[in-house]
Amino acid sequence: MFWKKRESHERRSEEKQSEDNLVTPSTMESELSMESLKKSLEQIDDAEFLEMNCSNNRIIHLVYIRTLIDQEKLNETIIDPLTNCSKASIQDCLVNSSTISIPVLKEAKSQLFSGCILLVDSSQNLWFAVPLKNPIGRAIETSETETILYGAKDSFTEQIEENITLIRRRLPIQELKTEKFSLGTMSKTNVVLMYIDGVTNPDFVTTIKEKISEINFDLFLDSSQVAAFLEKHQNSIFPQFQQTDRPDVVTYSLGLGKITLLIDNTPFALVAPITFFHLFQSPEDYINRWVVASFLRLMRYVCFILSVTLIPFYVALTTHHYQMIPIQTLLILVDSRSQLPFTPFWEAFIMLIFIEILKEASLRMPTKTGLTLGVIGGIVIGQAAVEAGFASNVLIVMVGISTVASFLIPNYLMTKANPLIQLILLILSSLFGLFGIILGSVAILAHLNSLSSIKQPYFSPVSPFYRKDWNDLFIRGPFFKMLERPEHLKPQKLKRYKTRR
Fold first, then answer.
1. Transmembrane ranges (predicted)?
2. Backbone angles phi and psi of 314, in degrees to 5
3. What is the spatial distance between Cα 219 and Cα 471, in angstroms, rounded to a whole number?
């Protein structure tokens, strides 16, 4: 026991010393010189060191990471201007490029790995960085997670600068602020906070800045990982940040008074604060006529309730309350279940697990194979299960309705949480019948009421109650009735129209 404690203490000491070495390098290593830079870049195969003679017999050193820069523009932007320039200053030679003065080695390495070329004038011991980032990345394409028939077709990419451009084109105002942060001691992921000054509640901006400053982690590869550190209720299955790859959704949210976080190398932005009801809103709600949009939104709420309660109701009625079933329906159920070896609970549980396996398998397969898998799993295996006596026809129909209904929820994270709610209600219904479903529903509502999104109530505007915000809650009211921003967001500017003309 003593040896284990001692080994553990030694290991922690070694880790601490290793971290200290990473954070605070020695004085020799922190000195800005070519030797210290070469030592830092040892065993990095794509690090390049070039030496070129300028027209006035001056020697300029070029240092860059080959895979991070745009090599096609290297000659045109840097080498040719320096070769043909007789001026004394590097900055005067590179008039078409922005140059950044480098004072310390840490800054030199930071600029180097962000896609800059370091220029070193050894005669004057001057260091400069010239941004020449490799523009590799995919083109702007249609969103695959939030598809709509009408409306804008562009979506975010992995390039954060392009994503800011897509938003600025829609909001060409100086009040749109962008503040940059860096997250991850290893990944150095750029995060940009966007909000409209004069509209967004300053408390939202302050809260999100405090949360960002508290993050201490090494690697961020996706927006969901950033959201996990910003959320207060990390054990909840309900997302407290909206993730979207649509610039029109982000723009509309900013206009309402929300904040947005753009994360580099991921096409999904984070929007907050959100409520539970935002998870059922689609971009098409603000494109269709308000009556149609309201009908479709109501359908989503109904389908969500249907998807989580239909199977538990089947189990509750067939297990505890079969006397409530009409005699004709009961005869059909008895005929359907007479040869089954499982109880209603195990029959439903196995089918729901099987459906989740099919969903996950179809996501992991290529598109065409996934469609084939869905047809085989949904029709062939389902029919075979009925004929083999493992499931009843009635349950197969209910599972099909429940699964299709769950796909109407526009938020993908909410769709993934749906089966867990369904299984919780299923277990409660098998134990306590209809009372179990009511008990589970009350517990879920209480849990939703306890959640928050950057300190704002998650179940607003129902609790706390904001009557005017109901114009865009269960229905999408006409635009001429939505002349004010949601009160629950506490915007600095409530009215959405000019008071003076």
1. 298-319, 339-358, 392-413, 420-446
2. -60, -45
3. 42
